[in-house]
Design goal:
The complex is a heterodimer of chains A (about 100) and B (about 325). Chain A has 2 helices and 3 strands. Chain A has about 100 residues and is of the alpha+beta class. Helices cover about 65% and strands about 0% of the residues of chain B. Chain B has 14 helices and 2 strands, in the order αααααααααααββααα. Chain B has helices spanning about 5-10, 20-30, 45-60, 65-70, 75-100, 110-115, 135-155, 160-190, 190-210, 225-230, 235-255, 280-290, 290-305, 305-330; strands spanning about 265, 270. The chains are: A alpha+beta (about 100), B mainly alpha (about 325). The interface of A and B includes residues 5, 34, 46, 60 and 62 of A.
């Protein structure tokens, strides 16, 4: 190949129901404008969204899966952060 | 977030593999956990999946050719719009799959080059010609029907990016099968000539479609480890039987005859097909099918003729980046 590999972009789409932009996949494009056009063609052929973000894949910093124990364990032991940890008598009703 | 940069830095599985890591990996698979791009995986798992997903992607792209052949000759505007949308979908499916394959650390450019050089394969079915409009109906009904049968279990494949790509593909694919069956139904309710055209297409496609599921279980090379790794959930013969059982009643409804005089229904209701001619399958895989050379020539021509577009887009992006750097320096 004489031309260098085309950069990779991650695509995020906000669906009609007003939720946050969600990662839907990736694609190759030489620049941001072409990435947006390609994202429309590849990921919204059936009206999947009202807004698209494209982000260069190299701009994403990811956590290391090998360290996921250390990273997420502190949250797992803190069950008192969930509402079900607390007892409320049934007579009180829904709370 | 499956960047190539992250994956190429991964040198874990070059050289001797850690037996403890391999056991841990298998335990995750057995627990139905999904494997993600940057997780540790055996080199053979990576290699098997890269081959399988990229072949799947090549098949979607080459699969556009036999159908694209009929876009300009579709009988009505409604049929033309539907066929155009279907071929566009196949292109989209190819791209989802290339993206999934790339997360394993091989670039799309390398994957495409492997196909264009003939090193990587694509599905044998796309080496058959589309001779009449009824072939377009048959492809939607049977070829896409067989693909769905194969792809639904892949939605639960152990490799996360492949499973997610398959979920999108399956959602879109059911329109393909229904539009094909509708074409067949219209032909079968039409004139005698139209019905004969539908029967002729079924006669030519039936056996090649059964071959799509791959060699019989007794001779398949990759099945054992793929099953252990939960890439594969059903064997080739199991899927083939499911497909046969689903398809025979659909053919009966159309009033068409499956071109297999030896086919019988057993006591459990399964439709048992006759012996498949595996020499034909091997010939087509070896490059000697009716359209192998045409398909490869068409792909190479399209790739070569698109080179200036890729180069121009890259040059424009480089120029803009340079201008931005210059402006920032002012």
């Amino acid at each position: 190949m004489t031309t260098p590999n085309t950069p990779l972009w991650e695509v995020f789409i906000r669906s009609r129901n007003g939720l946050a932009h969600k990662h839907v996949g990736s694609l190759h494009a030489s620049d941001a404008t072409m990435a947006l056009l390609a994202a429309r063609d590849i990921y919204t052929r059936r009206g999947e969204g009202l807004s698209i973000w494209v982000v260069p894949s190299t701009a994403i910093t990811a956590s290391d899966p090998a360290e996921k124990g250390m990273m997420f364990e502190p949250a797992e032991s803190k069950i008192y952060r969930h509402p079900t940890f607390y007892e409320v008598p049934e007579e009180v009703g829904h709370m | 977030m499956y960047t190539q940069a992250l994956n190429t830095a991964d040198t874990d599985d070059r050289g001797l593999e850690d037996a403890a890591k391999a056991a841990q990996f298998q335990a995750r698979i057995d627990a139905e956990e999904r494997i993600e791009p940057n997780d540790w995986m055996p080199a053979a798992y990576r290699k098997t999946l890269t081959r399988q997903i990229s072949q799947h992607a090549h098949s979607e792209i080459v699969g556009m050719l036999p159908e694209g052949n009929w876009i300009t000759r579709a009988p009505t505007l409604r049929r033309k719009a539907a066929l155009l949308a279907k071929v566009q979908d196949e292109c989209g499916h190819g791209l989802y799959l290339y993206a999934a394959a790339e997360t394993l650390g091989t670039s799309r450019e390398e994957l495409v080059d492997a196909m264009l050089s003939g090193k990587a394969k694509y599905s044998s079915i796309f080496n058959y010609p589309t001779l009449s409009w009824a072939d377009i109906g048959t492809i939607g009904w049977l070829v896409d029907g067989a693909a769905i049968m194969n792809q639904i279990p892949l939605c639960r494949c152990s490799y996360g990016p492949y499973a997610r790509a398959m979920i999108r593909v399956c959602k879109e694919e059911s329109f393909h099968q229904r539009q094909g069956y509708e074409i067949m139904l219209t032909l079968c309710r039409g004139s005698d000539e139209q019905k004969a055209m539908a029967q002729d297409a079924l006669n030519r496609w039936w056996w090649p479609v059964l071959m799509m599921f791959g060699p019989p279980d007794a001779t398949s090379q990759h099945s054992d480890t793929s099953t252990k790794w939960k890439i594969k959930r059903f064997s080739n013969d199991e899927l083939r039987q499911k497909f046969g059982d689903a398809t025979v009643p659909q053919a009966q409804y159309l009033g068409l005859t499956i071109p297999d005089p030896g086919m019988t229904q057993d006591a459990e209701g399964h439709w048992r097909y006759s012996e498949i001619d595996w020499t034909e399958f091997k010939q087509v895989l070896a490059g000697n099918g009716p359209c192998n050379r045409d398909r490869m020539a068409a792909r190479r021509k399209s790739h070569d003729e698109g080179a200036w577009v890729r180069e121009a887009a890259a040059a424009y992006a480089a120029k803009r980046a340079q201008r931005q750097t210059a402006q920032a320096a002012e």
